[in-house]
Specification:
By secondary structure, this protein is an alpha+beta fold. It folds into 3 domains: about 110 residues, Tetratricopeptide repeat domain (Serine Threonine Protein Phosphatase 5, Tetratricopeptide repeat); about 80 residues; about 60 residues, Roll (SH3 type barrels), CATH 2.30.30. It is about 60% helix and about 15% strand. The chain contains 8 helices and 7 strands, in the order H-H-H-H-H-H-H-H-E-E-E-E-E-E-E. The strands form 2 sheets. Strands 6-5-4-1-7 form a 5-stranded antiparallel β-sheet. The protein has a two-stranded antiparallel sheet with strand order 2-3. Strand 5 and strand 6 form a beta hairpin. It is globular, with a radius of gyration of 25 Å. It starts with a helix and ends with a strand.
Length: about 260
Amino acid sequence: MKQKTALFTIILMALVFGVGVAWAQSAQAEFETGDVANQLYENGRYAAATQAYEQLIARGMANSAVYYNLGNAYMQQGEIGQAILNYKRAQALAPRDPDIAANLALARAQTVDRFDGGAPDDLVGIFNTAVQANLTFNQLALLALGLWFALGIGIIVYRQMRGGRGKTAVALATALTGVLFVISAFSLGSRIYDANNFPPAVIVAEEVNVTSGPGEQYTVQFALHDGAEVGLLETRGQWAKLALPGGETTGWVPASAVESLN
């Protein structure tokens, strides 16, 4: 019995060691590939750097820095659509990064098609915009969850307290927490709805005609250019249905001309 236990322990240790070695080799390979990609970029070999960054993403190393660097490599090659696409992917992971925001603004300034949805003028809209500009989806979900717990605790404490200034202060704090929870939950729901029904995408073709249906036989409505930011509504075969910001104007383009952020 002891021999079987000892043998099992040895096999388990060997497996753990093997997994550890494999993980270390994989991490080392990713690190080296990242160094190679950065070196290629610094030497002005932007096309090769793009391929190296794409390899990192394919291996699962899809962090904000890699997307940001990939966006820079595309920017240097004049591929504005791919640059905006990857800057936005980077910003989704690091929304408060000033370098990502600056380069995204620089890329957007070079686009032909620009859509101004207008700034919100109500308190909920302003809060929702601020939250989405500063928090990732996971951070927003944690904020809503934290406010929900704080609201519950506030209600329990309020019910157990006797009258006085302390209870009044708790009531005000609980009410404020409740308002913030409702707004954050609304913002979270809005983000989930948009992600499912209006997933963001970017035109990555130099110019593409938007038709009224999924085929070249349909009427051409207008044209979009590299870097136009749209919503991807549906994919049907080799055609994709998209919508301009606001969702009122829709049309079809070849699926190869548009790429989703997700």
